[in-house]
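Exam prep: given the inputs below (a chain plus fe (ii) ion), describe the expected output before reading on.
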Amino acid sequence: MNSQPDIGDHMGEVREDFVSASDYCSKEFAEWENERLWPRVWQMACREEDVPEVGDFYTYDIVDDSIIIIRSAPGEIKAFHNACAHRGRQLTEGCGHASKLQCPFHGWQFGFDGKPLHVVDREDWGDKLRDEDISLIPVKVGIWGGWVYINMDLDCESLDDFLAPAKAILDPLDMSGLRYHWVKSAIVPSNWKTVLGLFNEAYHLQQAHSQVLRFQDDVTESHVHGRHGMFESWDALPPGIRSQRLGPPLEQDIRQSLHEYVMEYYETLQCAHPITMVDAVDRMMEEVPEGTPAEEVMAKVMQFTFEDAAGRGVEIPPITPEEMHAVGSDWHLFANQILLPGPLTCLAYRARPNGHDPDSAIFDVYSLLRYPPGQEPNVEPERCDDLTDISFWPLILIQDFENLAALQRGLKSRGFRGARTNPKQESAVSNFHRALRDFMRG
Ligand code: FES
Ligand SMILES: [Fe+2]
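Solution:
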């Protein structure tokens, strides 16, 4: 299927202020993705730390395909289609460690290079079984910033070229030094693009997370970088000062409010970023005098945060303030990954279809942190499909999830023609849909 399917009145219509409803809901669009997106696109599959030792494997499932990602040598990761060359049984499920890939059905064995090591009763085939015909089918692997990407299209462009516009800005963060702090997953009741769309704009903060406006300016602007998109808050007031929506900034000493801001995110998002700042804001309350201008208070908190990390032996990448400024807040890397990166931490999201159902997605959240060498924890990924479970999910994510099922229902309404995306604050959303259609047509 190379051409675009018939998907209704607004077939193919994506503008910076409009995204056709059919993109989110129709089975035809999902099948178009299954034919033209997933088999051809670079997609984040896991991190290097998921397969640290030779023989460690990670199984990445995407619609009907399943890919084995395996550490084949100390400095090498390979990937193969997860189907035995004998009668097709999947060779791996989930994560694990193996000395060879052995099929549980009839016991054929494959090496980490995909070549057959042993075929039970091979002589029964006479000279009909050539190694090259029964080797596992390779899948391309690319690694960037510790993230492992796969591409089933062996003729695809390089991962570096694919990521280029985003990579140029994000490289100084050296994400390869990050390790899992926690990993949480769920099956969510929405299209994979709907759930990603909760996290590539901040326009919803003023409604869905209004509790943060008392000490956070939510002004953001979004920008397009090829297929990728991002938003930044370069025009926002420093954290600790209330949103411009609530009126002019209060003349103030922001120390108390900045302390509350960090503690609020510490409790309601529970990701690594506020955790690295807790000691720094305590120290700020003790050492920074009353009446210090907001920018200076912020600079002191950043200085204390880095001093605290360096004091614990954390290796901090040599990123300049200008490079950090350029990174902004939030990046959507086409197609399945969102990053909120910093020099010490990253919050990341991944979404993909849950089989062929356009109303269901597999969603993963990653909190990453830069640890002192040798002190990285062993993190077990956790899963909870109850999106209201406050003992598992941070409050901010529950607030996001509250929109999800109702959003997917509304998107399917006969009365809904398409999303009127904000051209200033949501161009990362509309650009994603434009890039998706362009990619699938290409
Ligand atoms: S299907 Fe794998 S050995 Fe038979
Ligand atoms: Fe949100």
